[in-house]
Design goal:
Blueprint: E1 18-24, E2 27-32, E3 48-51, E4 54-57, E5 69-71, H1 113-116, E6 134-138, H2 142-148, H3 158-167, E7 175-179, H4 185-194, E8 211-216, H5 219-231, E9 238-242, H6 245-248, E10 262-265, H7 270-273, E11 301-307, H8 310-322, E12 326-332, E13 338-343, H9 359-384, H10 404-412, E14 424-429, E15 439-445, H11 451-460
Parallel strand pairs: 7-8, 7-10, 8-9, 10-11
Antiparallel strand pairs: 1-2, 1-6, 3-4, 5-6, 11-15, 12-15, 13-14
Helix pairs in contact: 2-4, 3-4
The structure holds S-adenosylmethionine.
Length: 465
């Protein structure tokens, strides 16, 4: 029974499963690991991923703990020179598609592995010889998949989808409707949110299986997404339908209701799809045939629509109001990255810290830190009520607070380590928000309360009981 590596990755990498190779901080390469005995495609090591950091036979990446650092092969497979497949009109995603066979040149990127790993502050430019490089092997998660997936459309990114899933109350056992599927970024996050331990082919008795019903009308995108669902072990958990939802709605398998508790619409005109997401047949839909609602009748239903323009928001809100949705509001996620570093004042000072960072300033700063630390120490000592107890963490530099230079020497000599010598934690934000993604409109369709519901409630909890 196949369990998705997105949902239950286990502790180690496995053959025939998806893994994400982290070549450098932001350069991620999805790979299906293949066990091959002996030579494969001209490579003595079997299937090999060739990157600018060296060659990595799949055999060295199977059966290792997730997060492992993998060293490049000593064998120079990269020089055997096959070219990376270029995107074409027929296959625009060629360059980004997860590699099932021999990956050749790694995508061009700026900087070196050392720089990308965050040593830029130290100004270190360290060339990494191809054969001495390394990568890390990571389990697939929705967040990593969003960063590495083959883009077929604009996608929803992590800051937006984490907030959306929270607001639409997607949780284990929820049934989510999503349209359009696009590149599957949201679908992966949604299925993890609703997964309640029932893998694809398990039948659930009594308990609802968390599930995502996804819809896509672009045929090529539909087929690519369907293939991914199978490859990622998500069959039965993500139910993808090739459909124009504006005209044909959300029922599945010839008229069955998904029974959705939550809805996410990433469509150009959400208001066109909204009438099909009603509990009762709306007046705007002609015809006398019996109405089957795609929604859960026993719960309030939560919706989010994702639209880049305010005009789309206005039309969506108007349609929501007409169709009985309440608690309508709009949110824009203004995501700002925060970069947290230790602001080192004593040791290993980068040379370009500016005019104020003369050795004299540094010495004064260290002395001040030592004084502050002394006060903390005194405070901790009093709080503990043990006047003679040694508060090791906050001990002053050996020789007293005025011997900060001596403390630095001690640290250099690996003795008498003091955390304050490492420097304060300093957080810097990006100066401005760079991107507008979309406006998120949220609303709730309250559950309906019928005479039968009231009778059942009274039978269970009689008045006056
Ligand atoms: N949310 C997706 C993700 O995170 O990867 C991206 C969705 S993409 C922006 C919008 C998708 O909606 C496109 O793939 C488009 O083909 C699809 N679409 C547009 N109108 C549709 C319709 N009437 N029915 C179904 N899908 C539709």
């Amino acid at each position: 029974q196949k369990i998705s590596p997105f949902l239950e990755p286990g502790l180690q990498t496995k053959a025939s499963s998806l893994a994400i190779l982290q070549l450098s901080r932001d350069n991620l390469l999805p790979v299906y690991l293949q066990a091959t005995a002996g030579e494969h495609d001209g490579y003595a090591e079997g299937v090999v991923v060739n990157t600018r950091y060296g060659s990595f036979p799949h055999s060295t990446m199977i059966g290792v703990p997730w997060g492992s650092q993998i060293r490049a092969s000593k064998v120079d497979t990269g020089s055997r020179g096959r070219k990376r497949k270029r995107p074409t009109d027929d296959d625009p995603d060629a360059a980004a598609t997860p590699q099932t066979a021999n990956e050749t040149e790694a995508p061009a990127e700026s900087g070196t592995q050392a720089e990308d790993a965050g040593n830029a502050t130290a100004g270190v430019k360290q060339a990494v010889a191809a054969s001495s490089g390394f990568i890390h092997i990571l389990p697939p998660t929705p967040e990593i998949w969003t960063m590495s997936l083959p883009h077929r459309t604009q996608v929803v990114y992590t800051p937006d989808y984490s907030y959306i899933l929270h607001r639409i109350r997607a949780r284990p056992g929820s049934v989510v409707i999503e349209a359009g599927a696009g590149s599957g970024s949201f679908s992966h996050a949604a299925v993890r949110a609703v997964y309640n331990g029932y893998p694809s082919s398990t039948t659930t008795t009594g308990k609802r299986k968390g599930k995502v019903f996804s819809y896509e009308y672009h045929e090529q995108r539909f087929h690519k997404m369907q293939k991914e669902i199978v490859e990622h072990g998500l069959e039965g958990l993500v139910h993808l339908t090739h459909r124009d939802v504006y005209n044909d709605g959300f029922l599945v398998d010839g008229g069955r209701s998904p029974g959705a508790d939550a809805i996410f619409l990433d469509l150009p005109a959400p208001w066109e799809a909204l009438p099909k997401l009603s509990r009762r047949k709306p007046e705007s839909i002609p015809g006398d045939e019996e109405w089957v609602s795609p929604l859960n009748f026993k719960k309030s239903v939560y919706i989010c629509t994702f639209s880049p323009c305010i005009e789309q928001v206005t039309r969506t809100v108007s349609a929501l109001r007409r169709l009985g949705w309440v608690d309508i509001d709009m949110v824009e996620i203004a995501n700002r990255k925060l970069h947290t570093v230790r602001d080192r004042v004593g040791l290993h000072l980068p040379v370009d810290r500016g005019v104020n960072n003369t050795p004299k300033d540094v010495d004064e700063a260290i002395t001040r830190l030592a004084e502050i630390e002394d006060r903390f120490r005194e405070h901790a000592r009093l709080a503990k009520g043990a006047a003679d107890e040694d508060v090791t963490d906050l001990a002053p530099p050996p020789g007293g607070q005025n011997s900060s230079k001596k403390a630095m020497n001690d640290v250099n000599g690996k003795e008498g380590y003091h955390s304050w010598v490492d420097g304060r934690l300093v957080t810097r934000g990006e100066p401005e928000i760079k991107t507008h993604t979309s406006y998120l409109v949220f609303a709730i369709l309250p559950r309906e309360w019928t005479e039968e519901d009231e009778a059942a409630a009274l039978a269970r909890y009689p008045v006056g009981s």
